[in-house]
Design a protein that fits this description.
InterPro entries: NA-bd_OB-fold, S1_domain, Spt6_death-like, TF_Spt6. The protein is an alpha+beta fold and about 280 residues long. The protein has a domain at about 1-70: Orthogonal Bundle (Arc Repressor Mutant, subunit A), CATH 1.10.10. It has helices at about 1-15, 25-35, 45-50, 60-70, 85-95, 120-125, 150-160, 225-230, 245-260, and strands at about 105-115, 130, 135-140, 165-175, 180, 205-210, 215-220. α1 packs across α4 (about 60-70).
Length: about 280
């Protein structure tokens, strides 16, 4: 039925009079040569007339007809655009910049210790250390310290058994994203062997320092100073109308309340009793 509407639109656009005996098919061919004439048509009024005649609301159909006459066979859908790395990250992780951002405090599971195996020159310059208390030798790279003889340490190197020096802690966040804490960011105090501080399967609290959307990974810190963030270096910026004075008052009130709870509250009494000395 819409073919007749297309012909009617062509006749109206060319402003043919009824007494001219216009050929609708010829008008359609003519309008295809000059589709800009269709811009002057009042399609909304045409749609209202069709609705009065019992055809229903055909407004969308009429606009589709005009679009087709303007550009035949054109795909009117929005051109395909590949998602950028940020959009892919948000789609696959179900996160948004509002829910996953730099400085966010997260809980992560330790899944391993990252190490760097020593290379040839490093092995040649290795200097194993003997513990005077136990009499055992220690590997300077992996810090394994139960070698009875110095030769056992060199055999440890030659056999390729040394996993190498620890460089950081590998994590898995609750949302499935991989995380990493460089050894310098594990603690405010120096850490030589991360295995002395964390273990596989352990849950730890940390803050996000860097987000790599292409690798689906984050760098984190578990330093106490970063977790406390007293200087607000990691937390989201405050609202310009944030009441800093009220915050300071509340903080002082909380500190005073803690001090009062810590004080021993007792009443000194003098007990007079023959059995009490």
């Amino acid at each position: 039925e819409t073919y007749e509407w297309a012909r009617k639109m062509a006749v109206d656009a060319l402003e043919y009079d009824d007494d001219e005996g216009a050929n609708p098919a010829g008008a359609l061919e003519e309008i295809l040569e000059a589709p800009e004439r269709l811009k002057d048509l009042d399609l909304d009024a045409f749609a209202e007339e069709l609705e009065r005649q019992g055809f229903g609301n055909k407004s969308i159909t009429l606009y589709d007809i005009r679009a087709e006459l303007n550009s035949r066979y054109k795909d009117l859908r929005t051109p395909f655009r590949s998602a950028n790395p940020e959009e892919l990250f948000d789609m696959l992780t179900k996160e948004t910049p509002e829910t996953f951002y730099l400085g966010k405090m997260v809980t992560a599971t330790v899944i391993g210790i990252a190490r760097r195996k020593p290379q040839g020159e490093q092995l040649d310059q290795a200097n194993p250390v003997r513990n005077d208390e136990t009499g055992l030798w220690q590997c300077p790279f992996c810090l394994k310290n139960d070698f009875p003889e110095l030769s056992d340490v060199w055999n440890h190197f030659d056999a390729g058994s040394c996993p190498g020096q620890a460089t950081g802690v590998k994590l898995r966040l609750d949302n499935g994203i991989s995380g990493y804490i460089y050894i310098k960011n594990i603690s405010d105090k120096g850490v030589a062997n991360p295995e002395e501080r964390v273990g596989v399967g352990q849950l730890i609290h940390c803050r996000i320092m860097k987000i790599d959307v292409e690798r689906f990974s984050v760098d984190c810190t578990s330093k106490s100073s970063d977790l406390l963030d007293k200087n607000h270096e990691w937390r989201p910026p405050r609202d310009p109308y944030y009441d800093t004075e009220q915050e300071e008052k509340d903080t002082r009130a909380e500190q005073e309340l803690k001090k009062n709870k810590q004080r021993q509250t007792y009443i000194k009494r003098v007990i007079v009793h023959p059995s009490f000395h």
